[in-house]
Amino acid sequence: MEEAKKQEIAQFLYQTEHDRTAIDNVSEIFNEKFTESEAYDIQDKVVALKKETDGQPAAYKIGLTSPAKIKQLNVDQPVYGILFDYMISYNHEPLSLSRFIHPRVEPEIAIVLKEDIYQEDVTFDEVMEKIDYVYSSVEVVDSRYHGFRFSLEDVVADNTSCQGAIYSKEHFKIEDVDILNEHAEVYINDEKIDEGYGKDVAHHPANAVVFLANALYKRGEKLPAGVPIMTGGMTKANPIKAGDKVRMEFTNLTSFEFEVVE
Questions:
Q1: Under DSSP, is residue 152 helix (H, G, I), strand (E, B) or coil?
Q2: Which pTM does this prediction carry?
Q3: pLDDT < 70: residue spans in the chain
């Protein structure tokens, strides 16, 4: 695909996000078939546009790492995207719907490294050795696509539905918590609607970081220390609306409680 066409698609996705407009898949709108690599090229251009006007990149998110999400969205391999600083809020703060189209929430484990990773064929053990700390989080996903229906290439180009995250301010050393067996329950208006475990995320959340490090290396990029990495939903993504009271109960990591407002 020519660079001009990639830029045109990126500009369109950037604008639809700002306009809060749900759209058909861009591969259909532009009648273009593109590869996964080209989709990440488009994502890079979307991120560059956002850096000009919206703020700065603040975290990585990895998606489609659990059976629940694979079944929900029918895409069977992990993807990654970039969260920006304006997308981040913290536990107990109200979540405003003002910049979302059709948001959904999912509990996640975030990992922060103490050393950069930039090497070929990173292993699980190497990632575990480089983890500084972990904490609980909630991702607020919001695809621009109607009904969250998309192909792998379409969702990658769309910055993997990145739109929000809620963080805990309490951090844990990796040796002090068992993130493999960490359990999360999702309550909306005091009704339990979902649950999952750390092991549901790529069989271990650190495996999601392995994927990200190797994927970035192939594109000539390092995975930097000190940057939060959201490892993927422990459950499927559950829709929210104004007035909802959301609670995410974690076994050992920090639990969440927040209200959804207009």
A1: helix
A2: 0.95
A3: 66, 68-76
